[in-house]
Amino acid sequence: MTTTVAAYAAPSSKAPLERTVIERRAVGAHDVLIDIQFAGICHSDIHQAREGWGEALFPMVPGHEIAGVVSEVGSAVTRFKAGDRVGVGCMVDSCGVCEPCQAGQEQHCVEGNVQTYNALGKDGEPTYGGYSQKVVVTEGFVVRIPDGLSLDVAAPLLCAGITTYSPLKHWGAGPGKKVAIVGLGGLGHMGVKLAHALGAEVTVLSQSLRKKDDGLKLGADHYYATSDPATFQELTGTFDVILSTVSAPLDFGAYLSLLKTGGALVNVGAPEEPIALNLFSLLGGSKVLAGSMIGGIAETQEMLDFCAEHGIGAEIELIEASQVNEAYERVLNSDVRYRFVIDTATI
């Protein structure tokens, strides 16, 4: 039997989100029904609700930073039971048989993973995200939230946490490595916390020094303003890894100059506009310009366990669902410290 639940949805591109009702599918043998308690607001929610990344499906219920409690499981579910504290991130299904899926990289599924919202599920029906009261998800795409993490501060880890943890691990952030985080926002503040916990020497590169005190409290060792040309002169050849978390186009040549020989500039922010790059910026010093997209389910669980072990949660501002449109505008104005989280009890 399907379930009718309240949600907040964008009825059309660029339209304000409004309260509505949606249908959740019946719980199948391998499904988990989750009572959503908290849902983070990611900048990508805004990109998609306003079609900044291309044509989208409407009505759209955004939200891929979901934390809640299991209320029902299907007959074949073995990993979860009612009452378990769980999370759902950016994807809710994949083919399961291609090489990336078999390697635990479902985010790179050859057939394309099924996104938590703004996508069509295998049943051909649109997916709806976490700005809602409940969600039904296949067991294999649900992760366990450790008891050491409060659900509200854990919700943003399902996107912002794994999006920064995965590339930091992949590119070897750790003791003896110098890591720069570009931008101190929803993603960047998690990048600072995680890079610090991994043992790296951490520098924040931000447009101004406005958030310097915050950055140092979060675990940064150094903080520089990129609006100051002296920054790029002083830091030339400094970093092993630079993680760019911003969704605005950068002067990639300037940032590549900050890398050591063989260093990597990794992008997790996704600007809406194409970028320009002089390839000599890469050739000199055998540098790497890379991208990274969330992480697989197993790595997401690893990240959550790591965060619980190190006492890491997101810095959040808890809001009521009726404030979501105001929150979108504040995100665009960089007016949040550092992640909005919706209390879904207010939907």
Q: What is the residue-averaged pLDDT?
A: 96
Radius of gyration: 20 Å
Helical content (DSSP H or I, runs of 4+): 10-25%
Number of helices: 11
Q: Estimate the strand proportion.
A: 25-35%
Number of strands: 17
- Termini, distance in Å? 22 Å
From the spread of the alpha carbons, the general shape counts as globular
What would you call the structural class? Answer: alpha/beta
Pattern of helices and strands = EEEHEEEHEEEHHEHEHEHEHEHEHEHE
Low-confidence stretches: none
List its salient traits.
347 residues, alpha/beta, seven-stranded mixed sheet, six-stranded parallel sheet
Question: How would you summarize what this structure contains?
Answer:
The chain is of the alpha/beta class and 347 residues long. The chain contains eleven helices and 17 strands. The strands form four sheets. Strands 3, 4, 5, 8, 9, 16 and 17 form a seven-stranded mixed beta sheet that branches. The chain has a six-stranded parallel beta sheet with strand order 12-11-10-13-14-15, covered by helices on one side. Strands 1-2 form a two-stranded antiparallel sheet.
